[in-house]
Amino acid sequence: MAAVVLYNDINFGGDSLASDDDIFDMSATNYNDKTSSIKVNSGRWRFCSDANLSGACFEISEGEYPQIQNDNDRISSFKRIG
Length: 82
What we know:
Elements (H helix, E strand, L loop, with lengths): L3 E6 L3 E7 L17 E4 L4 E6 L3 E7 L2 E3 L11 E4 L2
Antiparallel strand pairs: 1-2, 1-3, 3-6, 4-5, 4-7
């Protein structure tokens, strides 16, 4: 099971991107600015609106987040921080 899974649609629908690794530029994954919900299976993660962990960022820990409120379709990079 991947440490973090990002979903295209709210409530964990649509395409998904599963990762155990940091991604500093999601444009390389064709998944840039498409995340609407997230499952964090382990650890604490920082998600940012711009590449290289810049722009507006937020942090979440293990859990299910069926709808990313203020950052819907704005995630461009992320990193495990704990």
